[in-house]
Amino acid sequence: MLTLKGEQIFLRALEPEDLDFIYMIENNEEIWEMSATQTPYSRFLIKQYLENAHQDIYEAKQLRLVICDLDETVLGLIDLFDFNPAHNRAGVGVLITDKKLRGKGYGKEALALVSEYGKTHLHLHQLYANISVDNVHSIMLFENQGFEKVGVKKEWSLTKDGVYKDELIYQLIYVH
Prior knowledge:
The protein has 176 residues and is an alpha+beta fold. It has a domain at 9-126: Gcn5-related N-acetyltransferase (GNAT) (Aminopeptidase). 30% of the residues lie in helices and 34% in strands. The model has no long low-confidence stretch (mean pLDDT 89).
C-alpha cells in the first residue's frame, strides 16, 4: 500500500516530465514572496535540479513531492525543507497552484500525509511552517492540522510594494 496516498490525492517524487510545471512555479512572481525567490530560474537550472531530485532527504536536507489527484492530474507541491536529523525537525510548505482548486481539501490531505510520513518514517519530533501574517488560508490550513502559532517574526519580509510584513511561526510537535 502506498504510504503517501489519501482519499483524494497521492504524493509522488519529482519526475523529469515535471520540468515545465516546476519552471512555471519557480518563475511565478506571485509566489516569490512565499519562497524568498528574487530572480527567475532557467530551464537548464531546473533540469539540473530535477536530475538531482533523487537524492535522499538525509543527503539533500529537503524533499519535494508532487501533489496529484487520483486521475494523476498535478495539483501542486509539498516540501519538507531544512531537514535536521540531529534535532528531528523539518520545515514544511504546501502550494496548490490553481487558485480555483484551493479550499477543496487537497492541501489539507497532503499536509496530513506528509505529517504522518515525517512522524513514522523520518522519526521527526516536529514540523514547522513560516506563514505570512496575511496568508489567512494557510494559517487556517495549518491550525486545522494541529499546528500551533508559537511566534511572530516582526517586519520579516519586504514585499515588492516596499512594505514589511510579519511572518508567523507554526509548529506541530508530535506526541510519541
